[in-house]
Amino acid sequence: MTSREDSPLFELHEGGKIEVVATVPLRDRDDLSLAYTPGVADVCMAIHDDPELVNTYTWKNSVVAVVTDGTAVLGLGDIGPEASLPVMEGKALLFKQFGGVDSVPIALATKDVDEIVDTVVRLAPSFGGINLEDISAPRCFEIEDRLKTALDIPVFHDDQHGTAIVALAAMKSAAKVTGRTLGDLRVVVSGAGASGIAVSKILLEAGIGDIAIADSKGIISSDRGDLTPIKAQMAAITNRAGYTGSLEDALVGADVFLGLSAGKVDEKYVATLAPNAMIFAMANPDPEVHPDVARRYARVVATGRSDFPNQINNVLAFPGVFRGALDVRARSITENMKLAAADALCDVVGDDAREDYVIPSVFDPRVGPSVAAAVAQAARVDGVARA
Questions:
Q1: Fold topology of 8-159
Q2: Cα–Cα nearest to 213, from 197, 227, 225, 224
Q3: Which one of 3.30.830.10, 3.50.30.10, 3.30.470.30, 3.40.50.720 gives the CATH number of domain 161-303?
Q4: Each residue of 111-168: pLDDT tens digit?
Q5: Annotated catalytic, 357?
Q6: 60, 91, 148, 231: which is the annotated catalytic residue?
Q7: Distance CA 14, CA 271 (A)
Q8: pLDDT range class, residue 4, cuts 50, 70, 90
Q9: Angle at 218 (CA atoms; ends 335, 290), nearest 5 degrees
Q10: By C-alpha distance, which of 276, 158, 277, 306 is closest to 265?
């Protein structure tokens, strides 16, 4: 742990990383009377008479709530709402930097699903979208589903869907590099938490050949009697090859290992992957398979780290997803909007794809606008756009 004394890390965070900045002048009495009382009353009454005007005359349609309960923060786990705030502020910084989206960190002092849902529903009139962040599974699934039903603004759990979008984009590019399509690939996923489930779902939507998911007790299959409802749902739609037993059993001859669990995989099992394999070892800070080991057995290696090629980083997705959704005042974020975001990332790489470049850099200026445009268009096609 870094010492606070004379630390540039702590110095950077001192006082927080974001602020609210005025967008109109406040120089004299006339400015004050327009921005606040008495002038603001006319704007309030116009919105009262036509509630849709709130999107024109307030910041509602350009601001997102970043909501957490602090139970699944990065690699830190359940550290509570106050300790989660530096991460939520960082998320807000990324929203602004990479998507031009304003956002407000909201850390809730409750882990109760009903209380979280009720609180967010009551806060929602102030926001154009809700980004759920670092909420532990399986509660995160129910919270997102209930909020999507209750609200008519986009609700997006980034730990699930941001990861899924970027992983799909990278895998599509990697398949091209190795001369295959998604339909040719058999994938083994280590981890049945929020991101593992979401990545598996989007790969199925995109037409993956087959996929088997493993949790700490082995392969998720319909013959297991210990499955949670979400795992039972996944057992019904995955693992067409009928694998049972351990993760290692399913790795033999697999085309892709996709790690979302932090569980280490011994090199002798990595060696059993098929030729031209892909290894996406995304646990942070310690990948399930170290890249130096992975490269001995795979043509394409991706991690969640910035110090290796092919970083699977959610910042490639969520700013553009919300920018596109807000631009067309989308009621929700559909599956097609997520697939469109993945396609847009894949298109940024395009014909330049190679083994060490299957996903763009987070600093590629094409990323945010490309994702936003694709998401906005998909929202129009799906009929959820209001503008």
A1: Rossmann fold (3.40.50)
A2: 197
A3: 3.40.50.720
A4: 999 999 999 999 999 999 999 999 999 999 999 999 999 999 999 999 999 999 999 9
A5: no
A6: 91
A7: 47
A8: confident
A9: 80
A10: 277
Closest by CA to 125, choosing from 37, 19, 48, is 48
Bridge-partner residues for 367, per DSSP? Answer: none
Alpha-carbon distance 91 to 84, whole Å? 11
Q: Spell out the SS3 assignment of the chain.
A: CCCCCCCHHHHHHCCCCCCCCCCCCCCCHHHHHHHCCCCHHHHHHHHHHCHHHHHHHCCHHHEEEEEECCCCECCCECCCHHHHHHHHHHHHHHHHHHHCCEEEEEECCCCCHHHHHHHHHHHHHHCCEEEECCCCCCHHHHHHHHHHHHCCCCEEEHHHHHHHHHHHHHHHHHHHHCCCCHHHCEEEEECCCHHHHHHHHHHHHCCCCEEEEEECCEECCCCCCCCCHHHHHHHHHCCCCCCCCCHHHHHCCCCEEEECCCCCCCHHHHCCCCCCEEEEECCCCCCCCCHHHHCCCEEEEEECCCCCCCECCHHHCHHHHHHHHHHCCCCCCCHHHHHHHHHHHHHHHHHHCECCECCCCCCCCCHHHHHHHHHHHHHHHHCCCCC
17 catalytic per annotation: no
Asked if residue 309 lies in contact with residue 356, where contact means CB atoms within 8 angstroms, the answer is yes
